[in-house]
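In response to a reviewer's request, we include the raw inputs and outputs for one of the modeled complexes. The two entities were modeled together in a single run.
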Amino acid sequence: MGNNDKKIITISREFGSGGRLIGKRLAEKLDVPFYDKQLLDRIAEESGFSKEMIKGAEMKAKNSFLYSLASAMGTSENGPESLSLNERFFLAQFDTIRRIADEGSCVIVGRCSDYVLRGLPEASHIFIYAEEKDKIKRAVQEYGIPEDEARKLMRDTDKARANYYAYHTGRKWGEHVNYSLSIDSGYIEIEDIVDLIVQYTKVRRFSQA
Amino acid sequence: MGNNDKKIITISREFGSGGRLIGKRLAEKLDVPFYDKQLLDRIAEESGFSKEMIKGAEMKAKNSFLYSLASAMGTSENGPESLSLNERFFLAQFDTIRRIADEGSCVIVGRCSDYVLRGLPEASHIFIYAEEKDKIKRAVQEYGIPEDEARKLMRDTDKARANYYAYHTGRKWGEHVNYSLSIDSGYIEIEDIVDLIVQYTKVRRFSQA
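The model returned the following structure tokens for the whole complex.
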């Protein structure tokens, strides 16, 4: 597939909304690689956190809130060694996502991928969410989480996601302006959402107008 | 069409996003009545602001912020005559939208219709938005608004919409939780958005699960 046909979909999602499954099935139907947190983490680890890679990623990430903060604190001037392990890992993932996007069409779930690939014409960012009752139902029925734990786990996970997103991007997680499509998965079957998104990728513009 | 097949779509939209046109074309394709601001205003006016109607609507609207405010100020205890003309008109529209929803399937644009019909299983609420450049382009090319005026008109209109919505509903206009689908219309043709929504209405659940 030539670069002109490149279509990258990022999926950001609330815990229990089925977002990861939607992403996985979408990648299967589009016949493109699928990258979730596990895979992105592994690739970032295997890249070895090389200084050159982190410095390169740091320059690309310079508009993010984290690096405004790091600059204000003077840490970026001291070089990548002075960043915390978390911050270096975020940079490694940032770089991983950029390199994945360079390679071709794919589906990426989470890890602030919508922010990393913001403004890239070949990328479309989708947000999957649901009402609490639907997310708890999925957590109990699909993930096997006990009901009395599901609500707390759901809230803690999404709170952590929102904080992680805000810290690394300076934006508000879930806000419609970050995405080109947001879907409540509580009223529609997973496979039907996947088919809708496949349809969307056929008619949406993925290049500079 | 029996009541079990009733499907109501409300469209909330940013100025210049094409939301009204999407609603109109959607109603045509679904072969259902289409209600926009003009029509809703006329129906509300023709209803004559009867005291009985306003009182009935007032009771249904009792959860809205407006009526918490009115109650706190003591105005609702004095009866509908003590409400301002704007408040009475909102109540007339509230009642109009409820009655339209009782009648059958339809598409309704704006007027806080998503809030009025919140929780109604037969209703699905959609938000249409776009980036500023796309909205200005539409305002200039489709609405014939001079470019130097388009930006200000766009911002003023959406600011008024957001304030109207907040005042009458206590919620934040545009927030994903208010809707089951949000679409950026800047990357996709109007007819393709309409077809996507038609597809959505075929697979989305419109009844109590």
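As requested, we also summarize the result in words. Chain A has a mean pLDDT of 86. The longest strand of chain A covers residues 123-129.
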